[in-house]
Amino acid sequence: MPFLKARSIGKQFGAVTALAGVDVDIRRGEVLALLGDNGAGKSTFVKVLAGAHRPTSGTLEIEGAPVELASPQDAAAAGIATIYQELALSENLSVAENVYLGRESVRRILGVPILKRAEMRRRVDELLAELDAHIPDPDLPVGGLSGGQRQAVAICRALNLDARLVIMDEPTAALAVAETRKVLSLVRNLAGRGCAVVLVSHNIADVFEVANRMVVFRRGAKIAERRRDETTPEEIVAFITGAHPSLRSLEHLG
Ligand SMILES: Nc1ncnc2c1ncn2[C@@H]1O[C@H](COP(=O)(O)OP(=O)(O)O)[C@@H](O)[C@H]1O
Ligand SMILES: [Mg+2]
């Protein structure tokens, strides 16, 4: 059973059809890439999964049960974490504090809340090690970290919130080559831990490196779905640009 099943998802913004009839299955232990030209509907779909947009039509199921994700809190409670490009990290807080933001471990002594600092630090070290994240000192502020290290912190935070589906919107767009490599390996490690991962990316090389499956959106519709081992970068690019022969009849209806 897939972790999440989206069926016939549609989203209208007034007269604009951002999504129409989208069926997608998202599986544990798998990296699913979402591809498509600007305006294809990728971010809108991600926001539906993140509880940030209510779909106009269609249904979502998580582990076989129908769900309504009416808010980001609903999505978080369902185990869905979304890491947007502009990472919501606090620059002047430490790595460890950022990982625990919103989920501080508190113990009460005579009714007074005491942060379980040592326990939090242990857990952060564990998560960073599991992801092989290479952050030298988790007690230093996030402000001094590189883009790739910031992605690692955001991923650790998602895991610390028990995310079962992690969605990343263009995580490598602003990164240098070495950093991109590191983030892609974090993405693989996430799936290796059994997480479902959705990766939105414009970078075909990145996608072919980490994704098990690829879904292409065009003008709000899902026009192709391929396993990595049954397609090529050329075919995927042809779907994205609309040049793929199988799309000709569709384009006429356009
Ligand atoms: N909040 C919004 N209000 C109105 N139109 C929107 C909104 N968000 C997205 N759209 C429109 O929906 C379509 C899909 O956009 P989007 O999901 O951002 O595409 P992508 O992420 O693939 O570039 C576009 O035509 C876009 O202009
Ligand atoms: Mg987008």
TrEMBL record:
Record InterPro entries: AAA+_ATPase, ABC_carbohydrate_import_ATPase, ABC_transporter-like_ATP-bd, ABC_transporter-like_CS, P-loop_NTPase
Stored SUPFAM superfamilies: P-loop containing nucleoside triphosphate hydrolases
Record has Mitochondrion as a keyword: no
Signal peptide positions (record): none
Record's keyword terms, sorted: ATP-binding, Nucleotide-binding
Single GO MF annotation: ATP binding
A Pfam entry, by short name: ABC_tran
Sequence ranges assigned to domain ABC transporter in this UniProt record: 4-244
Gene3D superfamilies: P-loop containing nucleotide triphosphate hydrolases
Chaperone recorded as keyword: no
Record-stated family: Belongs to the ABC transporter superfamily.
Name of the protein in its database record: Sugar ABC transporter ATP-binding protein
Organism, scientific name: Methylobrevis albus
